[in-house]
């Protein structure tokens, strides 16, 4: 098979950015390395042939496979633990008082990958409320564009190594051993998370109610400045006043371009 030509690379970059917001302009080696072997195995003779196949596939499956190959779904339980400490000590006490009458907390894990983040949120919320959780609706919407990642997330089965970042009492309370190597989350915690495939580049978000809490961490690193700004503005418009946005520690918001107020490292609030 021929090497990736400039025209083929530019067409692919433009397609991915336009449809998924991901900027691969400086990732030519990554693009070639991650797609070449798959294309050979699948019987494509050139990148042009593969690209035509992706564009002509209206089911979305080819695009999903492309994204799975190009992006890294690397995550783990309690990733960036300072966020969860702030959530437990500052955010949840505030929101539980503000919403005490309605007992309705709306949370969104945007770019949930293989489920560790939304399940961490579910366990933390369960631990925070304890017996007082009766009557509260704290279900978490967890979305990702990768069907492969969502499939793993819904299975909720994780290796023993992945559980090591969790407190010991969480490991025993919220997981059931399948065998010596794997454990599965309890049904009660699994049912707290609703998984959906969703593209953050959608021009409008189809949510009926606004969120109190949005986690979108280590997702926007793939986007350019304009795409990040547009996405953050959509988050803002779909968030309740007093709500919180958590982003990755390697990410930041431009204070001159965002209405959010900085409250802690990688944590912002809608005043």
CATH homology-level superfamily of the largest domain: Vaccinia Virus protein VP39
Order of helices and strands: HHHHHEHEHEHHEEHEEHEEE
The radius of gyration computed from the alpha-carbon positions, rounded to a whole number of angstroms, is: 20 Å
How helical, in percent, are the residues? 40-55%
For the biggest sheet, the summary is: 7 strands, mixed
Count of separate structural domains: 2
Strand content: 15-25%
**Secondary-structure class:** alpha/beta
**Annotation, overall tally of beta strands:** 10
**What CATH architecture label of the largest domain applies?**
3-Layer(aba) Sandwich
Give the termini separation.
Answer: 55 Å
CATH class of the largest domain: Alpha Beta
Spatial ordering of strands, largest sheet: 6-2-1-7-8-10-9
CATH topology type of the largest domain = Rossmann fold
List low-confidence stretches: none
Describe it:
- This protein is of the alpha/beta class.
- It folds into two domains: 6-70, Chemotaxis receptor methyltransferase CheR, N-terminal domain (Chemotaxis Receptor Methyltransferase Cher, domain 1, Orthogonal Bundle), CATH 1.10.155.10; 81-269, Rossmann fold (3-Layer(aba) Sandwich), CATH 3.40.50.
- It has helices at residues 6-20, 28-42, 47-56, 61-70, 81-98, 116-129, 147-155, 160-163, 168-174, 187-190, 225-237; strands at 107-110, 140-144, 157-159, 175-177, 182-185, 193-197, 211-216, 239-247, 261-264, 267-269.
- Strands 6-2-1-7-8-10-9 form a seven-stranded mixed β-sheet.
- A hairpin with a 2-residue loop joins strand 9 (261-264) and strand 10.
- The longest helix is centred in the first third of the chain and has 18 residues, at 81-98.
- The N and C termini lie far apart (55 Å).
- The mean pLDDT is 93.
């Amino acid at each position: 098979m021929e090497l990736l030509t400039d025209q083929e690379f530019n067409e692919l970059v433009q397609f991915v950015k336009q449809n998924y917001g991901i900027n691969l302009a400086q990732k030519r080696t990554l693009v070639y390395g991650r797609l070449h072997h798959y294309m050979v195995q699948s019987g494509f003779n050139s990148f042009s042939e593969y690209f035509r196949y992706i564009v002509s596939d209206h089911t979305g499956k080819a695009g999903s496979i492309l994204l799975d190959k190009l992006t890294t779904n690397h995550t783990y339980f309690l990733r960036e633990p300072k966020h969860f400490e702030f959530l437990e000590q500052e955010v949840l006490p505030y929101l539980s008082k503000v919403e005490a009458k309605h007992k309705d907390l709306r949370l969104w894990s945007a770019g949930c990958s293989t489920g560790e983040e939304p399940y961490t949120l579910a366990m933390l919320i369960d631990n925070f409320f304890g017996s007082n959780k009766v009557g509260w609706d704290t279900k978490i919407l967890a979305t990702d564009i990768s069907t492969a990642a969502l499939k793993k997330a819904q299975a909720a089965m994780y290796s023993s190594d992945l559980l090591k970042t969790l407190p010991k009492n969480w490991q025993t309370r919220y997981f059931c051993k399948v065998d010596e190597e794997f454990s599965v989350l309890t049904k009660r915690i699994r049912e707290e998370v609703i998984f959906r495939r969703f593209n953050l580049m959608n021009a409008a978000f189809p949510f009926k109610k606004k969120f109190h809490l949005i986690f979108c961490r280590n997702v926007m690193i793939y986007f350019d400045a304009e795409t990040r700004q547009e996405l953050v503005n959509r988050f803002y418009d779909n968030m309740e006043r007093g709500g919180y946005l958590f982003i990755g520690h390697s990410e930041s918001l431009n204070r001159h371009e965002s209405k959010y107020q900085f409250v802690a490292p990688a944590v912002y609030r809608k005043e």
